[in-house]
Amino acid sequence: MNPTPHQIDSYLRNELSSSELSAFEAEMSNNPELMDQVRFEQTVVEGISQYRKAELKARLDAIEIGSGWIGIGQLGSSALVKSVGGVLVASLVGVSAYFVFTAEENITSPETVYEPVQITSPKQSESYQFEFPELSDQKVSSVISEPSPNVAEKSSTTSEEKVEALPTTQKSVASLDEENEFVPVVDLPDLGELSEEKGLKIENANLPEMNEMDVVSSKGESPISVETIQRNSESIKYKYFDGKLFLYGDFKSTPYEIIEINRPSERKLYLFYDQEYYSIIVSDKVQELSPITNHQLLQELEIVRNNKL
Amino acid sequence: MKDSEILEKIAKGDETALDYLYKKYYRMMTNLVLKNNGTEEEAKDVYQEALLAFWQKAISGKLVLTSKISTFLYSICLNQWRKELDRKSRLSNEEVDSEEFQGHDQNERYKIVMQCISELGDTCKRILTYYYFDGLNMTDIAEKLNFANTDTAKTKKYKCKKKLDSLIKARYTTTDFFD
């Protein structure tokens, strides 16, 4: 049999059944012409694949990735903003519901009660429901309104006037309070899941876990200020005083580099000078620097310095 | 977007799902490489390769995910980066052998093919890449490219492939191509 182009296609797309495959391969080994043809087709298909890959990569390259550290980069785009928004809305629901209900409880004449506002925007309720499935329809569509200071004033003055009605009012307020407080608390699990994702673990992964080290703040920390004091001696000394690093040594002939590694919990300083690395431990006394000998640390510093991370 | 929604979109060849995933997990995946002696460029490369491998698997609809997409992607990145580190260490040990040399010839051939594809019309490029790389079936391709029906897509694919083959062969005779 001579395989049709369609069969070659199927072979290349791994679509042949096991019996068809063995028949095809048997045919191929007996038929050098077919073998050549298949090899040609394979190259073409691989070329097409590479073309498409390059195209898709170009597409991905064009996507702007938020710079900055993982926390903002990841949370900022999606969940955090929505979570915070959700918490805000939830609290708004809570707070305003509080005003609505207390006002309704206290103010007995119905005509002084303002019109309650309903959340009707489908877009809003949709997105919040998606992010916070715990917020039931009922809660989202529950009556809310803008908390106006007027209302608060009104309710407090009326409650003062109607002192005799106080016991019952207080009771209902208390129970409402409990109910309202429930809403913001509900939002927390979503954040929890996210932080879990950030620290994704794979078993057998011989790699350090993602941890707080990921949170490398690129802003906030200002680079350390350095002052050099010219000394013509071979050794270099330093002192860290009042947030400033003083270096004593001969820096006229050889430049120095300061490598700062900032983590949320700590800040590490290293000095690179004349092909040697030195660790700087914050101290206000003048200290002599001795080169780092820890091989692994040296390697890491070399990488950091070369990549200017 | 939920994982299931993303997979649904990918199965239809919707590239916006790819954009979405890329952005969402960029930091998580690239950090894996960055923290293991990789550069930003290498990290990006590994992540893009992993994401495209995932895209190819997911588009076929044959992928059964037992974990979150992020977990799955992470493990692909991990494997890719291990392979790359392995390759690097072999290179540094100067074991550059005939394997690399043969790869060079092969790469030349791929370049020829890519050059010829770029000479095709846009429709042909779309059909052939969707079919051979993304692995979309003819029905999906017809839908994506607004063809009247599946048969139109089949016919067009056949013609485009013929055209491509002839372009390649015109440039190099079959024997040259394989020498």
Automatic annotation (TrEMBL), chain B:
Note the InterPro entries from the entry: RNA_pol_sigma-70-like (IPR039425), RNA_pol_sigma-70_dom (IPR014284), RNA_pol_sigma70_r2 (IPR007627), RNA_pol_sigma_r2 (IPR013325), RNA_pol_sigma_r3/r4-like (IPR013324), WH-like_DNA-bd_sf (IPR036388)
Keyword field: DNA-binding, Sigma factor, Transcription, Transcription regulation
Q: Per the database record, which ranges form the RNA polymerase sigma-70 region domain?
A: 21-90
Is ATP-binding one of the keywords UniProt gives this record?
no
Keyword Transport listed? no
Instruction: Give the family from UniProt.
Output: Belongs to the sigma-70 factor family. ECF subfamily.
Q: What is this protein called?
A: RNA polymerase sigma factor
